[in-house]
């Protein structure tokens, strides 16, 4: 009888980073075969193309397919083909919600996935406002395992700086605030992977693009300035002051979030900065990390791997 076979199909960059720890766990197991395939068909693990899943070919019929965004192509096509062939599809959520956004109607279903691994309880509460029927399991983000007993990679930054996490959309308050803050303390920018205004930040600040730079930058920063983003969750564990620059828009219920967590975050809609604002900023406790990032025990990858294994038949 052939070994159980698990296939990961993910986008390059963040997608590979997100699943690599589970892939590594399965690679170590002599009784499991696995293949990791990126959208550009770069591969790791078991080779062979004897079985077709939508636009890709794999060694043989998998027992489980793992994706990070089951609704959108090209993952949706491959995942849909898997379900048509009675192959379970496990989703490891690529991000986490903080604010309820009524435009995200696609979240009413995770099909073709049959289960979605979430980062935290806050995210689950928002998912349930959309979707009361599908299966969700809070596992934590596998990438957050490394923040336990973390030693940052070498990176060139000022001795003291503010970290700007660039947004995808809401820039009205954040951009002018960052420019004023830069006159008091150096600002270093980490760009969002699909930020289409990166040139603006690169002209003004020391700026990093690569995904691996997020954690060392956050670990070394004095404070974080951002919009609403799952990127700052590790900063909760490291008890960094987080200044959130956001606002209500049609269908985007920011005030709900702001009213619920005034004891965790610093909410800012102006560009006024001084030493008192910085020195007296609210600092989160590690217990606040658990709301958004689940258990700080370094076992998120093991929990996700357990979910994947539970669908192996």
Q: What report would you give on this structure?
A:
This protein is an alpha/beta fold. The chain has two domains: 5-144 and 297-310, Rossmann fold; 162-293, Glycogen Phosphorylase B (Rossmann fold, 3-Layer(aba) Sandwich), CATH 3.40.50. It is 30% helix and 18% strand. It has helices spanning 14-28, 75-84, 121-130, 174-181, 198-204, 214-220, 233-237, 254-260, 275-279, 286-293, 300-310; strands spanning 5-10, 33-38, 43-45, 51-53, 56-58, 64-67, 89-92, 115-118, 135-138, 162-165, 187-190, 206-208, 223-226, 242-244, 266-267. A seven-stranded mixed sheet has the order 3-2-1-6-7-8-9, with helices on both faces. A hairpin with a 2-residue loop joins strand 4 (51-53) and strand 5 (56-58). Helix 1 (14-28) packs across helix 11 (300-310). The two termini are 12 Å apart.
In short:
The protein has 313 residues and is α/β, with parallel strands linked by helices. The chain contains 11 helices and 15 strands.
Strand order of the largest sheet: 3-2-1-6-7-8-9
Topology order in helix (H) and strand (E) letters: EHEEEEEHEEHEEHEHEHEHEHEHHH
In terms of per-residue confidence, which ranges show pLDDT below 50 for 5 or more consecutive residues? none
Number of beta strands: 15
How many domain regions? 2
Roughly what is the average pLDDT, rounded to an integer?
Answer: 95
Query: Major sheet, described briefly?
Result: 7 strands, mixed
Radius of gyration: 20 Å
Based on the coordinates given, report the CATH architecture of the largest domain: 3-Layer(aba) Sandwich
Determine the N-to-C terminus distance: 12 Å
């Amino acid at each position: 009888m052939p070994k159980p076979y698990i296939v990961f199909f993910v986008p390059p960059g963040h997608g590979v980073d997100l699943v690599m720890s589970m892939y590594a766990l399965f690679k170590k197991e002599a009784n499991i075969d696995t293949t990791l395939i990126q959208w550009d068909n770069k591969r790791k693990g078991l080779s062979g193309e004897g079985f077709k899943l939508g636009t890709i070919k794999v060694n043989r019929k998998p027992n489980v397919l793992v994706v990070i965004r089951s609704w959108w192509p090209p993952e949706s096509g491959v995942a849909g083909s898997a379900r048509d062939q009675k192959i379970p599809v496990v989703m490891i959520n690529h991000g986490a919600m903080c604010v309820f956004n009524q435009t995200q109607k696609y979240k009413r279903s995770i099909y073709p996935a049959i289960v979605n691994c979430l980062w935290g309880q806050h995210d689950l509460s928002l998912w349930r406002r959309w979707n009361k029927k599908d299966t969700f399991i809070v596992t934590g983000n596998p990438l957050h395992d490394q923040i336990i007993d973390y030693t940052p990679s070498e990176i060139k930054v000022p001795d003291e700086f503010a970290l700007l996490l660039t947004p995808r959309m809401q820039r009205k308050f954040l951009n002018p605030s960052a420019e004023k803050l830069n006159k008091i303390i150096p600002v270093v920018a980490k760009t969002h992977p699909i930020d289409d205004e990166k040139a603006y930040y690169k002209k003004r600040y020391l700026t990093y693009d690569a995904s691996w730079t997020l954690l060392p930058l956050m670990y070394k920063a004095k404070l974080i300035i951002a919009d609403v983003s799952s990127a700052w969750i590790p900063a909760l564990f490291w008890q960094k002051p987080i200044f959130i620059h956001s606002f209500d828009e049609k269908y985007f219920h920011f005030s709900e979030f702001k009213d619920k967590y005034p004891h965790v975050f610093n909410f800012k809609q102006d560009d006024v900065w001084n030493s008192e604002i910085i020195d007296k900023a609210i600092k989160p406790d590690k217990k606040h990390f658990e709301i958004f990032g689940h258990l700080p025990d370094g076992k998120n990858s093991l929990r996700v791997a357990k979910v994947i294994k539970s669908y192996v038949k």
